[in-house]
Amino acid sequence: MNQEIRLFGAIAVRPAVLALISQFETATGSTVAVKWELNPTVKKQIEAGEAFDLVIINPNLLQDLTVLGKVKAGSQVAFGRIAMGVAAKAGSRPLNIGSVGAFEHALKSARSIAYASEGTSGGYFSGLLERLGIADEVKPKLVAVPGGQTAPAVGRGEAELGVVPVTSILAAAPEVILVGRFPAELQSYVDFAIGISANATDAEAATQLSEFLMSTAVDDILAAKGVERP
């Protein structure tokens, strides 16, 4: 009987990875149990003893877990990167964010902006507002949203715009639309890497899942969900 593979991953990769799980299970006969949290929370829970077989998280956090002996040394592989984007409720007026000036204008004109305050993307966005010199004007409009709920909050009308990795925006369709990715000068890609637990229940099965997620055969599906390969 095949072992159940416990996959613990960051919320931003959830839509893309979930699109592949059934294909893997059908091909191998294995089952995959998934759990999703914000990047920092994944790391904290694993440090606290959360059991897992495979993890998908920011590379720097994965390295920390490797140093701690939680992730098997040498098992790390770069999974992909996700661009930052702006979300709006379906049916909203067209919005231009194609240049730095247009991006700033959109933020300053918005009534409210949802963001994942505790996540990697939220941390970057907060710093970006400071760098652009518009923090004092924009921060009062920010709506801190729990992990994984930024785009849905926009769809529910709880904020006019949302700033979040594009995977989450695409996954919230049709209630939410992708206004666009951040301008190139401001873009920050959120990188993700895969690692295998140093205490995996079935290291061979975990390796098989890692290899499947890294295969070129799934690149098109990942791209459609917003994940760009390295």
From TrEMBL:
SUPFAM superfamilies: Periplasmic binding protein-like II. One of its GO terms (biological process) is molybdate ion transport. GO terms for molecular function: molybdate ion binding. Gene3D superfamilies: Periplasmic binding protein-like II. PANTHER family: BLR4797 PROTEIN, MOLYBDATE-BINDING PERIPLASMIC PROTEIN. This is Molybdate transport system substrate-binding protein. It comes from Rhizobium mongolense USDA 1844.
